[in-house]
Amino acid sequence: MSENSPSPSDPRRIVVGITGASGAAYAVRVIQLLAAGGVEVHLACSDLGRRLLVEEMGITRVDPEQLAPGHADRIVTHPGNDVGAACASGSFRHDGMVVVPCSSSSLAKISLGITDNLVQRAALVTLKERRPLVLAHRESPVGLPEIEAMRRVTEAGGIVAPLSPGLYLNPDSIEDLIDFMAGRILDLLGVSHDLRIRWDERLRERDKRS
Ligand SMILES: Cc1cc2nc3c(=O)[nH]c(=O)nc-3n(C[C@H](O)[C@H](O)[C@H](O)COP(=O)(O)O)c2cc1C
Predict the structure, then answer these.
(1) Does pTM top 0.90 for this prediction?
(2) Does a cis peptide bond (omega within 30 degrees of 0) precede residue 101?
(3) Residue 2 pLDDT class (50, 70, 90 cuts)
(4) In this structure, what are the phi and psi dihedrals at residue 27, rounded to the nearest 5 degrees?
(5) Interval between CA 90 and ligand 1 midpoint (Å)
(6) Average pLDDT of 173-178?
(7) All domains of the chain, ordered by start, with CATH?
(8) Ligand 1 centroid vs 17 CA: distance in angstroms?
């Protein structure tokens, strides 16, 4: 087993929310990595999240087989407006939630405890149950409303992780940039992975070559 392979203590069930910010590809990659790593994924998509999946990825149905071919059996989809779904309840046991990409609108609503849809409701419940919550926010620049919302979420125990991939690993492609953020999100959720995103590994490779 390599250093980053899934370990028995890894999370087994993660909730993923997709909202209407640019960056649907990050969501798809996170879902694929989780499912391929044996994690049960509970997926909720806002109305605008679904629109961005179509516009940016050509994904017209929130269909597990389309999202993660070969691992569809690990993905449970929930209607985005069903605030009565299992993952809307604190009694639903899971190991954490990520909203990716997270729009400024969802960020603000979650930070204020407003739950107009399942993504927001599941995120708020994750906070109140003191489980890991990662909001992978996408907007630039940000103004005081977003900054205040980030502060509130952070004070409530959530993690705001802007979709802002580092360039220090000399990415060759958009896929490398997406993997950088997907890997960081998995790190924050405590899920092991083998993506080559670590600065120390790069230093070791460089030392070996010199
Ligand atoms: C094509 C498109 C791209 C968008 N990109 C962003 C974005 O990157 N960040 C953001 O905060 N909002 C973005 N929006 C606006 C949100 O979709 C809008 O605020 C929406 O109400 C968010 O709802 P939701 O958070 O429930 O998905 C975009 C909208 C569209 C149509």
Answers:
(1) yes
(2) yes
(3) very low
(4) -60, -45
(5) 27
(6) 97
(7) 13-163+173-209 (3.40.50.1950)
(8) 14
